[in-house]
Amino acid sequence: MLQAKVYFPVIMTFQFTPIALAAALAAAFPVSSAVAAANPVPEAAAVVVTAARQAQAPADVLADINVISAEDIANSGAVSVADLLQQQRGIEIARNGGAGSNTSVFIRGSNSVQNVVLVDGVRVGSSTTGGASWATLPLDQIDHIEIVYGPLSSMYGADAVGGVIQIFTKKQKGAVRSVVSAGIGSYGTREMNGGVSGSVNKELSFSMKAAHQEAEGFSVTRPGAGPYSYNADKDGYKLDSFSASANYEFSKQAEVGAQFMTSRLNAQFDAGPSYDDRNVQNQEMISVFGKMRVNDIWNTQLQLSQSRDQTYTDASYGKSQIDTRQDFITLQNQFQFGKDSAQLIAERREENVITTTKAINGKRRTDSLAGSYLWKQDAHLASAAVRYDRSSVYGNNTTGNLAYGYRFAEGLRLNASYGTSFRAPTFNELYYPGYGISTNRPEKSKNAEIGAVYQKGDLELSAAYFRNRATDLLVTAKVCPVDPVTNKYGCAYNVNQATISGLTLSGAMKFGQLGIKASADFQDPKDDTTGLQLARRAKRHGTLSADWSEGNWKAGVETVFSGRRYDDVANKNALGGYSLLNLYTSVQLNKDTRVLARWNNALNKDYETAKNYTTTGSSLFVGVQYAY
């Protein structure tokens, strides 16, 4: 299967060149925080926008959500976005090596291709393999992250089965501010980044940031990988990124904006003993928007956006190029009726794939209509949403979601919800020679959930029980039962059913200068067709962290626990459970300068998230940040 993508110039339906347009707009226009929000993203601590595609107070969100703040990111000790997500409830990762390696993220036991990833409201990922290219997402560019657990196809369409992760890049209003930072660490790690952001006047605000990260790395494979994979050399990487945004407010009723992010990852990997195998991946996102308050109840927004996922692979088994490009047009209307609100959304998504394997080159278009309603009355909260997606390739799909919540007492709310979702087959699953079946259908899913949330003062508690049943799962068979003559080496086809049920518990508490957070996931990710455990997903997963502040000093400890998993669908290759310990500390030397140190995997735990692939051992990092 093709795992690479190529870097090509962009030719959109509404023709524009991303870099040139971004440069022009950065000088004169604004940055939106997403079509995911009807407004540019407000303060992360005040509202969340991903669950309903509009700004909501966290206490009004009926879905199970988790917000990773800018402070959480700064103190996390994470090197990559995947490292950061591994520390969150309901999330597991599998990675073929270190931070620059191929990575999968599982939400609530769902497959990595059954989740939607957004950057400032723009969907990113590959149409050939499915899922986001996590290693190309630069942590240095990220301000905060919102995670919504559970089905959201009624809001975002295909692939929002297990949940949605939305990444918000760094932006700032107010006085113009410059920030530079640098650091060094184990495995030859070096980081440098700098940026400037703020408001030129009352109307215009902007942000620009560039970052560089590299590491000499370690061998990503173990000898057990075999002679056609193992290579004892070091597998390093270099990641360069740039983001820019601008926002211009004509008045309180009208504004326009633009945003742009690009990253380039040059990463080595192992595919045999005598070749310097590497992937060169490019991730790019650009969007422009206009927003207007038509009257007292009606707000409207139009956004044009594009994302590209491209890789050039140079390996011992050959060279390949793949270019995935997605173009979006979204018209979003929000109507406010007192405490209630309604939305009407129309979208067009065009996917374009160009590869060296020309058999899977192609396009597909999805036209969508969606509507939702949020209702608030005294102690009652309710929401309803429905969406219709019409694809030029895999047909029509209608999904919906109903949720209800009741506040029993101050700070305590009980929730119940039911939603349907689907995953579209990837271009590989449809067209890859000797593997794809052009008649493959979308996977379907039904999720029921109940939960409780308690928040009062510095205490936060939550619990959620879910049961997600999926049908028509696309699986890989070594002997293709559909068309064994054409597909001599196996195929992907619809056959399996799966049920993922589980209970997630989480809590956070402040005791003066001491803060404690904990979570535990108990799940049963089961393949109903075989009765076996779904690959690379554990039945138990948990986190525990604590931090202490004293004047300008802050220190913390983080732990991650994961149970036994299997690397294959046959449950023959076991992956042992593991526990990780991370330590960090920081000191604010003065109002402009901050020094930090972190020690990840402090106990040097030797573990695997993918069979015969090495993970990062004990590693130190020290950095300094100067802001003016």
Automatic annotation (TrEMBL):
Keyword Transport in annotation: yes
Domain TonB-dependent receptor plug residue range list: 60-164
Transmembrane segments annotated in the record for this chain: none
Primary location: membrane
Pfam families the record matches: Plug, TonB_dep_Rec_b-barrel
Compartments it resides in: Cell outer membrane
Keywords on record: Cell outer membrane, Ion transport, Membrane, Receptor, Signal, TonB box, Transmembrane, Transmembrane beta strand, Transport
Occurrences of domain TonB-dependent receptor-like beta-barrel (ranges): 221-601
SUPFAM superfamilies in the cross-refs: Porins
Residues making up the signal peptide according to the UniProt record: 1-36
InterPro entries according to UniProt: Beta-barrel_TonB, Beta-barrel_TonB_sf, Plug_dom, Plug_dom_sf, TonB-dep_rcpt-like
Keyword Signal recorded: yes
Entry membrane topology: Multi-pass membrane protein
Family: Belongs to the TonB-dependent receptor family.
Protein known as: Outer membrane protein
Species for this entry: Undibacterium squillarum
